[in-house]
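Fold this complex.
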Amino acid sequence: GVTQSPTHLIKTRGQQVTLRCSSQSGHNTVSWYQQALGQGPQFIFQYYREEENGRGNFPPRFSGLQFPNDSSELNVNALELDDSALYLCASSLAGRATNHEQFFGPGTRLTVL
Amino acid sequence: AQKVTQAQTEISVVEKEDVTLDCVYETRDTTYYLFWYKQPPSGELVFLIRRNSFDEQNEISGRYSWNFQKSTSSFNFTITASQVVDSAVYFCALSNYGQNFVFGPGTRLSVLP
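Structure:
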């Protein structure tokens, strides 16, 4: 399945954070979502073959990397209080599309103080 | 712009009752995909179904059934004979073939014993 680390993280405003995800074996596409408390997941971006393939309405301080070994990272610079949320990673065989079944990890709960 | 509305924020039913979760979507695309995901208290999103815009056949899977009506832009989800284990937040989601995946705000279902 999809795994994410760490499970929980506490940072202060202005700091930088890196969240990690290990995709399901064989999946070529990874997407990241931000889920604020009580809301639905918001699409941040998608990576396919190590390139950003699509992006939601998030500023450039949200960036990512996808590695050949089924792992990926979400980096957030200059943290703001509103960045506090559950960050979900999802892998799929979607390629350049977003219409495939996605397999989600358990998420990383980020708290910004 | 794409949008998903789930008007029911919370629903409570008693075990063995049937319950329908509503989903209304907006899109200008002629080709699109609709999904339902379940998010139990553990937090991990679980895929339930995917339906493309050209397939309006209703689907039944065990106690779950889905009713897709393009004329009303709705993709409703019914659980028959609900069980306590069905308690979760359910999300309806919409995707075009491009790089955009939109979740609704979710409906919290509580099934009481």
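Chain A has no helices and eleven strands.
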